[in-house]
Structures are given as structure tokens and as C-alpha cells.
Amino acid sequence: MEKFTTLTGVAAPLPMINVDTDAIIPKQFLKTIKRTGLGKSLFYELRYDENGKERPDFVLNKPAYRKAQILVAGENFGCGSSREHAPWALLDFGIRCVISTSFADIFYNNCFQNGILPIKVSQEELDKLMDDANRGANATLTIDLDKQEIRGPDGGVITFDIDAFRKRCLLEGLDNIGLTLQNEKAIKSYEEKAQSARPWA
After folding, report:
1. What residues are paired with 6 via a beta bridge?
2. What is the pLDDT of residue 73?
3. Which of 1, 13, 170, 184 is the most exposed place for a label (fewest CB within 10 A)?
4. Which stretch of DSSP H or E encloses residue 157?
5. What CA–CA distances, in Å, run from 63 to 50, 56, 98, 153, 190?
6. Residue 24, class by beta-carbon neighbours within 10 Å (0-12 exposed, 13-18 middle, 19+ buried)?
7. Strands 149-151 and 157-159, bridge-based pairing
């Protein structure tokens, strides 16, 4: 998993509440088990019309936000079914950080397992960040995970809380597999002892 340390990128405003995982990546795209290739279908029904043509008024179709790396969204982001394809699609598009006042628990946990930083802020702070994100090409935020800071284009700073263990995992690029592999020698030693003690197993 790619490490998350400091990210400076364009922030796209998505002032919608209760954006569920089906809106993030619709069910027809869940057949794959690959983590790549889903970015083109991110927010499919919002980004494209019934003929598959881009809707010019959707934020990620606007020139200033086509390479956005940060999403500033309304409350209860990621609700609905527990599909891990949702963070996969966000990451494949290029989104490394989602900022909201609240997230659905399973989506929130899945973000950390895929190298995406979900940040919870107050409504007042979200309103300020949403205003920053509406600046188009000038909507650049800097996310400093180590300092737990969001720095705006006007120099303003918002601090955020994050669980210490999850912070460490993101900083070091560790998902559950990576954490397990840190104990590879101990696991191998155990397996060798178990094989010697029970050669018939």
C-alpha cells in the first residue's frame, strides 16, 4: 500500500449528503476483483448521462477538477452497502483523501485499508473547506498527516484527529497483509517448530 505522508492537490467540492457506495461505484461494476480500472466508473450515474456522455455540470468533469486528489463531501459519506470497490474506485481515479463531517463505519475502515485518508471535521470547518474547494484550479489544499493539519490556499490551518494506530499504518503504508508480514520471521519459526513437532500434520 502506498504511504500517505503529505498530500498537496486540488480539492473537489461535492456538497451532497448521504452519498452511498452505489453512487460511488454502481453495482454493475462490482464483477471485478481487481483494484484498478474502476476510476473511469467512479460516480458513474452522476458523471455520465444515459448515453454514456459526460455531464458537463458534474464537478469531476469540469477541467479544474479532473485531476482532483481530495474530495470535500457532505455528511454520512460512504453509507449503504459495504463494497470495498468504493475506495478502490476513488483511489483509481486519484482521490487520496476524503473530508466530511461523518462517514459510514465500514467505508471509513475500508479507506484506511486502501491508502485513503478519511478526515472528520466540524460543520463549520467543512463549510470553510467547501468554500476553498469551490475556487476551481486554485482549490489546492495540503494535507499533512504527521502534523494532522489541513492547510488551505489562503494559509488557514485546520487540525484533525485520527487514531494513532491508523495514522501509523498510513504513514508506513501498511494494510492488514503488510502488518502480518512484519512478523514473517516469527511466523516462519512457528511453522518450522510445528512441523517438527507434528511431522504427520
Report:
1. 144
2. 98
3. 184
4. strand 157-159
5. 22, 9, 20, 19, 55
6. buried
7. antiparallel
- Name the residue ranges covered by the structural domains of the chain: 6-174
Are 97 and 142 within 8 A, CB to CB? no
User: What are the tens digits of pLDDT across the range 82-117?
Assistant: 899 999 999 999 999 999 999 999 999 999 999 999
CA–CA dist 166, 116 (Å, integer): 11
Q: Is 78 exposed, middle or buried (0-12, 13-18, 19+ CB in 10 A)?
A: buried
In the chain, the amino acid numbered 158 is I
Who contacts 188 (Cβ-Cβ below 8 Å, separation ≥6)? none
Contacts of 52 (CB under 8 A, 6+ apart): none
